[in-house]
Amino acid sequence: MREYIALDSHKHYSLLERWNAETGQAQQQRIEHQRGAIREHLQPWVAGVAVAVEATGNWYWIVTEIEQAGGLPRLVHPRKAKLMMGLINKTDQLDVHGLSRLQQAGTLPCVWIPPGPLRDLRELTRTRMVLAGQRTRLKNRIGATLSKHGVPLSGFSDPYGAKARPALQQALAALPAQTCWVTGQLLAQLELVGEQIGQHEQRLKELLAVTPAMQWLLTLPGVGLILAAVIALEVGEVSRFASAEHLASYAGTTPRVAASGGRVRYGSLRADVNRYLKWAFIEAANVVSVHQAHWPQRHVSQLYRRLRQRKGHAKAVGAVARHLAESAFHVLSRQEPYRDPAAREVAPKRCERETLHEP
Known about the structure:
359 residues; two-stranded antiparallel sheet; five-stranded mixed β-sheet; single chain; 13% strand; alpha/beta
């Protein structure tokens, strides 16, 4: 009996379908979300059977319960699945049955399911990125407030560091009463976020021992410990990518292409990608752009300067990010350090290791 099982998951419930392709009979059942509910419904008859579920925001625990019930979870790319279904109308019943039909046809667009321990480790680097974004927004807000009242801080490499703190306190005292109070609140929040980022980095040092994969990634230009950890955790098993171009596309470092009538147009970098990998490679490319004068003979420096002159800074950074993404595939798959295309022997890196406190 050919039976296909699919789940259309939402925030508070999932619609389960068991479809017998031979008889054409489909049984659909709504399952209210609570821990153990999906496992209990699947356990009696799902052993060794594939179960399709879309990669929505709550797929972690659903995949875990499918595995606990003895099923084989198949994580589905939501956007590709919708396009392949070709449905005019949209209902939960049609969506879940569409997943079953794609399973029957053998065209279910599945994505890789990272192991549970890897999903857990990813939270460290992903949450650090969130905190780093908050730190940047707080700094921008404080700086804008000081500039608005004519007391901007200058002459400091870090206007919010220890050396600039006396001048910062004097600037706060020159602000109107309410503005001074709220800016002080923002400054206290900035200090708290900075402490939390430091705690994340310390935990990363303890839990993410520098593995061989991270050591190879550290040889990439512009990649330091944090970026190496992000890349290693987000890539996971590099063997799941067929080529360097596939990894670069997954990381969002390839532009959109529109080709028609013999004309080819390249747009901006894709957005529907792994945004954590995209951030990591863009950050590494920005490090290259800042320090390219220190390594003028390196391939990444020459690539950046050549494209910056013709297409500007943003396009040049995007091209360097793509080169780094493709190079990450090669160093991980070949299990060897990065080799600069512009030279047979790469001199030891001097300035490309950013500190732990990356942007």
